[in-house]
């Protein structure tokens, strides 16, 4: 976490819960995904907010995240999507009652070996139906079933696979292929006596592909208020989610740039006329990307103000001319400049910031969320 700055990240847990509720009732069982510090929203705080919301299972990535979640006081089921990567992780599955995804024969052998002394372990079997990252290939099912038969202490209770293109309207056919392959896997498992909770859908899968809802869905980005279909023909399917993260930084200095003057390193921006500029105390050291140089906007007092010149390590210059004129509200050192969210018509959506940054809201949340953070109910 970053602690050397004056950036403030404000998380609305009420909005996060409102987003979760949108899925409850539509999808049979929701597994909120809170890996990577809940996409920058705070693992423990988000888990606590979800308590009492009818959520039985939370998903994280690495087993050490699962341990941190258990230590935070979460007593429900924890799914570690990446499974154990070393002996410390393996032991933790028993010690902290963690359901781990097992994605290859090595992982299976490791937990089977530990099960000999530690006893029964419920596991999630992860299948690769097309993403080509992690998981058993469907063709490897016979060997997998043999390994399970040889290690009855390992009890598959869940099976998962991950969609590569659920958010792309022109890839519906590929989603259907993955779903069909996965259904075949589930059927084979069932015939071998393994009745598992099956899940395939992430946010986009649950929203756009009713056939992918299965027994449970793994809900990530939509819970954090970003539309997975932004910029596509399906954009309206993801509209109306509530923004959960807002980020601001202080104005440090306000002054006038005369016509023809450059600003910031390299003078990559030169004024065509006199301009009022504000220097805001945030930069790439605060995970506010340098790729926003001459491209991004901030929101000051409800007005969109463009970034002028290069984003620096701890400072960014914005054009506040429109705020400083006769009609404007004025700008002074100490005022807040919003990088994300903020008041009024200038409010900045995560999808917009991600566009200027040339990335996706996932990365915006993970990176900006490392700054000093507070949570409101
Ligand atoms: C991160 C993740 C999700 C959540 O995806 P979103 O697109 O954020 O909803 C679901 N499943 C797996 C395996 C993941 O790694």
From TrEMBL:
It holds the Pfam family Ala_racemase_C. GO terms for biological process: D-alanine biosynthetic process. Substrate binds at residues 133, 313. It catalyses: L-alanine = D-alanine. Gene3D superfamilies: Alanine racemase, Lyase, Ornithine Decarboxylase, Chain A, domain 1. SUPFAM superfamilies: Alanine racemase C-terminal domain-like, PLP-binding barrel. Pathway: Amino-acid biosynthesis; D-alanine biosynthesis; D-alanine from L-alanine: step 1/1. Keywords: Isomerase, Pyridoxal phosphate. It comes from the Bacteria. The modification N6-(pyridoxal phosphate)lysine is found at residue 35. GO terms for cellular component: cytosol. One of its GO terms (molecular function) is pyridoxal phosphate binding. Its EC number is 5.1.1.1. Its cofactor is pyridoxal 5'-phosphate. The active site is at 35 (proton acceptor), 265 (proton acceptor). Residues 244-376 form the Alanine racemase C-terminal domain. InterPro entries: Ala_racemase (IPR000821), Ala_racemase/Decarboxylase_C (IPR009006), Ala_racemase_C (IPR011079), Ala_racemase_N (IPR001608), Ala_racemase_pyridoxalP-BS (IPR020622), PLP-binding_barrel (IPR029066). Belongs to the alanine racemase family. HAMAP family: Ala_racemase. NCBIfam families: alr. Catalyzes the interconversion of L-alanine and D-alanine. May also act on other amino acids. This is Alanine racemase.
